[in-house]
Write a structure and sequence with these properties.
It is a single chain. By secondary structure, the chain is of the alpha/beta class. It folds into two domains: 47-285 and 487-505, Aldehyde Dehydrogenase, Chain A, domain 1; 290-476, Aldehyde Dehydrogenase, Chain A, domain 2 (3-Layer(aba) Sandwich). Helices cover 39% and strands 18% of the residues. It has helices at residues 2-11, 84-102, 107-123, 125-136, 140-161, 165-168, 189-202, 217-228, 243-251, 264-274, 299-311, 331-342, 363-378, 410-413, 429-437, 452-461, 494-498; strands at residues 47-48, 50-52, 55-57, 64-69, 74-80, 173-176, 179-183, 206-210, 236-238, 257-261, 280-284, 290-293, 323-327, 382-385, 400-403, 420-426, 441-442, 444-448, 466-469, 484-485, 488-489, 502-505. The radius of gyration is 23 Å and the shape is globular. The protein starts with a helix and ends with a strand.
Length: 506
């Protein structure tokens, strides 16, 4: 009995009702009982094969790799490593399905299959959310409330477009391209799969998808859903593996379209690889978004937007608001409020519903974040980290911000992809626009102000594909997403997202 009481006492944080804003104990002034999401209903196979021509098939090489839980460092499953031969088999399957079935199917019939996938995703939402958090490390609240519902919404949305392609390109003739090769990242595994597969199918294409090697499980669960939806064999094929598998897909001569989301460096490699070919492509690459706070903004609301902008999904977001610009007159106030709010953030088990910041996706990514922290300190930045506890096992990192950073600092100009915020001040609208644009990236941004005229001025002059006003990190399947400069080429989402999958003739 004494042992049980001791364990319970150890598991709960003490409540300090006398804590004041700015005190070191603010983060411990609220205590939440553990609220773990159950894993009892989750079914994970010990080994996953490739999904080709509607069936799970073993890789030709017989090679498998481990996918692990970044929060526990424990092995979740073994996943097949696709070779060039396997990729060729998947592409051949996709081509046959396009020529014989999918390309000839009436659009309204294609829509039924896409709609069915969306419904089954909703039915299995709880299972998908838990697996997404286990495999990727993101908090269950985000997987449950954002990732999975939004993924299903994309399939619903593009199911509606399938028989309305003529309205997308009035006055022109539009048809499918053929076979699309798609490569997705590890930060939003299932959502990125939905972003790419749904518009491709709606346009009449077939697909070969390669998920990230660190987060393949929800894509393979999607394969099960595709089987359950009775999608014709070969319409969607999923090949797992690392960079070599992706390279084989990009270079395959029978691929008509490449869609890639990932780092700018890999995007440049893909561009070089397909140069001189007839392959169409869309690239959604890195970012270093400017989040701009004016003195007339609702500051408490803005602070919540800052927190969501940089610490959502551990900062593993290409459009993360990793550069904060605060007008000089309110800078001290905003930074104080921001530090106070950071102290309330809970870093821990991704499956605990109380967790705000989960596990860093991999050990390599954690080391990259630590490297940039050292760079920031060495370059003269003033570092502040939340005084929170982090688990002793797994890949975790405290929410961090830097002040006193120069425009030339590497933590200001380079993508870190973690919970690290660089703060600068400004005086005038013109100054902040110049600073915001003085960077190789142009994916996203945010502006916080009470003046509509200021919103229009800033958003029209910042060179970024997506800019939020008085909010941040809000997504919708009807809204296009993509960047300028080194942040990519093309758009995904909305009407704009289906056009790159069409062959349009005037």
């Amino acid at each position: 009995m004494a042992t049980k009481k001791a364990a319970k006492k150890k598991d709960e944080r003490k409540i300090n009702f006398n804590a004041t804003p700015g005190s070191k104990s603010l983060g411990e002034s609220w205590s939440y009982a553990p609220a773990p999401e159950s894993k009892d209903h989750i079914r994970l196979e010990k080994k996953y094969d490739l999904f080709i021509n509607g069936k799970f098939v073993a890789p030709s090489s017989g090679k498998y790799f481990d996918t692990i839980n970044p929060a526990t460092e424990g092995k979740l499953a073994e996943v097949a490593e696709a070779s060039e031969k396997d990729v060729d088999s998947a592409v051949s399957s996709a081509r046959s399905a396009y020529d014989k079935v999918w390309g000839k199917m009436p659009p309204k019939e294609r829509a039924k299959y896409i709609y069915r996938i969306a419904r089954i995703m909703q039915e299995r939402a709880r299972e998908l959310a838990v697996i997404e958090s286990m495999d990727g490390g993101k908090p269950i609240r985000e997987s449950r409330d954002i990732d999975i519902p939004l993924a299903a919404a994309h399939f619903f949305y593009y199911a509606g477009w399938a028989d309305k392609i003529a309205y997308a390109v009035p006055g022109a003739k539009a048809g499918a391209l053929g076979v699309a090769g798609q490569i997705i990242p590890w930060n939003f595994p299932l959502l990125m799969a939905a972003w790419k597969i749904a518009p491709a199918l709606a346009a009449g294409n077939t697909v070969v998808l390669k998920p990230a090697e660190t987060t393949p499980l929800t894509a393979l669960k999607l394969a099960e859903i595709i089987q359950e939806a009775d999608l014709p064999p070969g319409v969607v094929n999923i090949v797992t593996g690392a960079g070599a598998t992706g390279a084989a897909l990009v270079k395959h001569p029978d691929i008509d379209k490449i869609a890639f989301t990932g780092s700018t460096d890999v995007g440049k490699i893909i561009q070089k690889a397909i140069a001189g070919t007839k392959k169409k492509y869309t690239l959604e690459l890195g970012g270093k978004a400017a989040n701009i706070i004016f003195e007339d903004a609702a500051l408490d609301q803005a602070v919540e937007g800052i927190i969501n902008g940089i610490f959502f999904n551990q900062g593993h977001v290409c459009c993360a608001g990793s550069r904060l610009f605060v007008q000089e007159s309110v800078a001290k106030q905003v930074i104080r409020k921001l530090k106070d709010r950071m102290e309330t953030l809970i870093v821990g088990d991704p499956l605990d519903k109380n967790t705000d910041i989960g596990a860093i996706n991999s050990k390599d990514q954690l080391e990259k974040i630590k490297k940039y922290i050292k760079i920031g300190v060495n370059e003269g930045g003033t570092m502040y980290q939340a005084n929170c506890s982090i688990p002793s096992k797994g890949f975790f990192y405290r929410p961090t911000l830097f002040t006193d950073v120069a425009q030339s600092s590497r933590i200001v100009s380079e993508e870190i992809f973690g919970p690290v915020l660089a703060i600068q001040t400004f005086r005038t609208v013109e100054e902040v626009i110049e600073k915001a644009n003085n960077i190789p990236y142009g994916l996203s941004g945010g502006v916080w102000t009470d003046k509509g005229s200021k919103i229009f001025k800033v958003t029209s002059q910042i060179r970024a594909g997506v800019i939020w006003a008085n909010t941040y990190n809000k997504f919708d399947p009807t809204s296009p997403f993509g960047g300028y400069k080194e942040s990519g080429v093309g758009r995904e989402g909305g009407l704009h997202g289906i056009l790159p999958y069409l062959n349009i003739e005037s």
